[in-house]
Structures are given as structure tokens and as C-alpha cells.
Amino acid sequence: MAKASEIKVGNILRFNGELVTVTEVLHRTPGKGGAFYLDKFRNIKTGKIVEARLATDEQVEICRVETNDFQYLYEDGDTMVIMDNTSFEQHNIPKALFGPAVKFLKEGMSVIVSFESEEPIMAVAPNFVELEITYAEPAVKGDTSSGALKSATTENGIEIKVPLFVNQGDRIKVDTRTGEYVERAK
């Protein structure tokens, strides 16, 4: 347990029975009454923002979270199987922790997973992945206005909009946070 005055941005707390990450800490000293903290927390599971007013000596529980690099092995129903790179121990992680970036994961990729007492609480895919184009619509002659895009399908079955010059067999870089084409891979 720690006092509210010891909370820092980035800490992970157990607040009202939920795991939250601290996004903002404001110290207020009104002319009348005692000083207090106005904190903003983001719920780790739901992403919902919660505001709290805490007295300076109020007790809060700061959680011990271990964050490590893991290797993504394969998909198993609603879970993703990952392996610790040092101990070779395998863990099943719910797909939902990766969010929309889960569809870009390829076997053998490096991912970051955070555990709080053996329970996975956060999972992050790499920001960029390289994928091969397995199908690309042919470019229409004369359709060369700036920023023209066409549909293409990647090796893992995701349909993505790419520039007209990208063809079948090309490798492209995709932003996993937005799902958008970034550039051709070198």
C-alpha cells in the first residue's frame, strides 16, 4: 500500500477492484480545507477513463507488473500462445488484450505482454509489420490522381488499401495501430 501522494503517471493501481493505469495527477490546495489530488485513471480492461479525488494520505494499492518480450507462436481458439524468450515457458493470452492489432500477428513475431501476479493484463503487438501481398487489383490506366488507392490482400488474409504501384508479391509495411499501408518494405 502507498499514499496518494506517492502516485506517479504510468503507475498501475488496483482502484475500486479494477486495474487502472495512472494518466494524470494534479495536486490541488484550495484556500479552504485540506490539499487533495485529482487523478485520472484508464481502466486497463475497458479503456474507460475514471477521475478520482484522493486525500493526500489516502491509501492506494500499487500493483507489481512484469512486462517482458515474448514470441508469438500460434493461435488457439480465442487465445494466442506466446513463449518466454528466456525460460521457454508458454502462456495463453486472450485475443482481446491485443485489440484490433491481433489480425496482423504472424507466427514468430515478438510481442510485449504485461503480467500482474501470473494474470496477463496488457499485450502489445509491434507498431509495424511486414506483410506480403498475395492479391492486388490491377491498376486502371489513367487512374493516377494523387493518392489513388486500390485494394490488396495480404498473406494473412487482411484486405488493405495500397497505392497503385504495389503489385502481387511485393512486401509492404503496415501500421498495426491503424491498419494502414506505410511503405514498401526494402
From TrEMBL:
<dbReference type="InterPro" id="IPR012340">
    <property type="entry name" value="NA-bd_OB-fold"/>
</dbReference>
<dbReference type="InterPro" id="IPR011768">
    <property type="entry name" value="Transl_elongation_fac_P"/>
</dbReference>
<feature type="domain" description="Elongation factor P C-terminal">
    <location>
        <begin position="129"/>
        <end position="184"/>
    </location>
</feature>
<feature type="domain" description="Translation elongation factor P/YeiP central">
    <location>
        <begin position="67"/>
        <end position="121"/>
    </location>
</feature>
<comment type="function">
    <text>Involved in peptide bond synthesis. Stimulates efficient translation and peptide-bond synthesis on native or reconstituted 70S ribosomes in vitro. Probably functions indirectly by altering the affinity of the ribosome for aminoacyl-tRNA, thus increasing their reactivity as acceptors for peptidyl transferase.</text>
</comment>
<dbReference type="GO" id="GO:0043043">
    <property type="term" value="P:peptide biosynthetic process"/>
</dbReference>
<protein>
    <recommendedName>
        <fullName>Elongation factor P</fullName>
    </recommendedName>
</protein>
<comment type="pathway">
    <text>Protein biosynthesis; polypeptide chain elongation.</text>
</comment>
<dbReference type="InterPro" id="IPR008991">
    <property type="entry name" value="Translation_prot_SH3-like_sf"/>
</dbReference>
<dbReference type="InterPro" id="IPR013185">
    <property type="entry name" value="Transl_elong_KOW-like"/>
</dbReference>
<dbReference type="Pfam" id="PF01132">
    <property type="entry name" value="EFP"/>
</dbReference>
<keyword id="KW-0963">Cytoplasm</keyword>
<dbReference type="Pfam" id="PF09285">
    <property type="entry name" value="Elong-fact-P_C"/>
</dbReference>
<comment type="similarity">
    <text>Belongs to the elongation factor P family.</text>
</comment>
<dbReference type="InterPro" id="IPR014722">
    <property type="entry name" value="Rib_uL2_dom2"/>
</dbReference>
<keyword id="KW-0251">Elongation factor</keyword>
<dbReference type="GO" id="GO:0003746">
    <property type="term" value="F:translation elongation factor activity"/>
</dbReference>
<dbReference type="InterPro" id="IPR013852">
    <property type="entry name" value="Transl_elong_P/YeiP_CS"/>
</dbReference>
<dbReference type="GO" id="GO:0005829">
    <property type="term" value="C:cytosol"/>
</dbReference>
<dbReference type="InterPro" id="IPR020599">
    <property type="entry name" value="Transl_elong_fac_P/YeiP"/>
</dbReference>
<dbReference type="InterPro" id="IPR015365">
    <property type="entry name" value="Elong-fact-P_C"/>
</dbReference>
<keyword id="KW-0648">Protein biosynthesis</keyword>
<dbReference type="InterPro" id="IPR001059">
    <property type="entry name" value="Transl_elong_P/YeiP_cen"/>
</dbReference>
<dbReference type="Pfam" id="PF08207">
    <property type="entry name" value="EFP_N"/>
</dbReference>
